[in-house]
Automatic annotation (TrEMBL):
It comes from Paracoccus limosus. Signal peptide: none annotated. It is found in: Cytoplasm. The keyword Acyltransferase does not apply. This is Pantothenate synthetase. Keywords: ATP-binding, Cytoplasm, Ligase, Nucleotide-binding, Pantothenate biosynthesis. Pfam families: Pantoate_ligase. It is an enzyme of class 6 (ligase). InterPro entries: Cyt_trans-like (IPR004821), Pantoate_ligase (IPR003721), Pantoate_ligase_C (IPR042176), Rossmann-like_a/b/a_fold (IPR014729). Homodimer. One of its GO terms (molecular function) is pantoate-beta-alanine ligase activity. (R)-pantoate binds at residues 63, 155.
Length: 293
């Protein structure tokens, strides 16, 4: 059965007030729509852990640094409602822009540090937009748990920092990246690739997994990363915005003995693809060997 589509906060409050009065745990899955199996994995996890699940669908203008990207972002509300039908979602919250940002809205939530590099450097203002809308959506839904995909690794770390720093009463649940059979992480923006581009795109996770293997076997990060960037360029990715080895939590320099992450953003056919995977660095890695990463 299709979940009820709720567009106003008043209507959402009427539902959630009743759920809370009945002592039910509410989970929220924030999305921008154009739903695929990646989103559905978050929904399934939320259903397994919560009594009530709200999926939010809002293409947040404040997190788009590029107006063309905002204009071209897929908007497929009817298809999204249909794809969710078998999953027993309790509400599909599709607020209007004015509902989220009422006239006169003047507040921005900004998370320092972890928002700075990588996505933050290449999409100025992006994480302020994400942190602001996520805070608003948490407050609107008053959910106890929120589900986020590891595909957007830096976003996940920004949201964790935000929740910890503001003592927000919500638990962030990270969910593993869902990949297509050829390894490409599912993403709404993938729909914009041609069939040829879509086939080429699988090289991105290929290079990432290869590189992780080399680093885990003791390759020195700086030259291995440079080589992998050049390989991506040879494979037709242009530009390769970043391919970096970072600390998994802070996104700062990788440190010996701490979980590290490889993160990439690269363009193909005018589509910006991102991905990331964990790397277990050898015990012998030193700060100076990693510092050059
Ligand atoms: N392949 C995936 N596996 C797991 N979670 C995912 C995947 N793709 C998206 N998500 C998660 O779904 C949530 C909503 O993401 P969003 O609506 O931006 O979809 P998207 O596919 O990431 O789109 P985009 O093209 O903007 O990257 C986020 O928490 C995101 O990390
Ligand atoms: C978390 C989110 C829904 C906020 O707009 C968005 O950044 C996304 O879809 O990952
Ligand atoms: N998937 C993260 C949201 C964005 O790219 O704007």
């Amino acid at each position: 059965m299709n979940a009820p589509i709720i567009r106003s906060l008043d209507a959402l409050d009427a539902l959630t007030d009743a759920w809370r009065a009945a002592g039910q745990r509410i989970g929220v899955v924030p999305t921008m729509g154009a739903l695929h199996e990646g989103h559905l994995s978050l929904v399934q996890r939320a259903k397994a852990e919560c009594d009530r699940v709200i999926v939010t669908l809002f293409v947040n203008p404040r997190q788009f640094n590029n107006p063309e990207d905002f204009a071209r972002y897929p908007r497929t509300e009817q298809a999204d409602a249909a794809i969710l039908a078998p999953y027993g979602v309790d509400a599909l919250f599709v607020p209007t822009g004015d509902e989220v940002y009422p006239p006169g809205h003047a507040t921005t939530v900004s998370v320092a540090g972890v928002s700075g590099p990588l996505e933050g450097a290449h999409r100025p203002g992006h994480f302020d937009g994400v942190a602001t809308v996520v805070t608003i959506l948490f407050n609107m839904t008053r959910a106890e748990r929120a589900y986020f995909g590891e595909k957007d690794w830096q976003q996940l770390q920004v949201v964790r920092r935000l929740v910890a720093d503001l003592h927000l009463p919500i638990r962030i649940v990270p969910c593993p990246s869902v990949r297509a059979g050829d390894g490409l992480a599912l993403s709404s923006r993938n729909q914009r690739l041609s069939a040829k581009g879509r086939a080429q795109a699988a090289a991105l996770p290929g290079v990432l997994f290869d590189l992780a293997g080399r680093l885990e076997r003791g390759a020195t990060p700086a030259p291995a990363l440079a080589e992998a960037r050049a390989r991506l360029a040879d494979l037709g990715f242009a530009p390769v915005e970043y391919l970096e080895l970072r600390d998994g939590d802070t996104l700062g320099d990788p440190l010996p003995g701490r979980p590290a992450r490889l993160l990439v953003a690269a363009w193909l056919e005018g589509v910006r693809l991102i991905d990331n995977i964990p790397v277990t660095l050898p015990q012998t890695a030193t700060r100076s060997s990693l510092g050059a990463a």
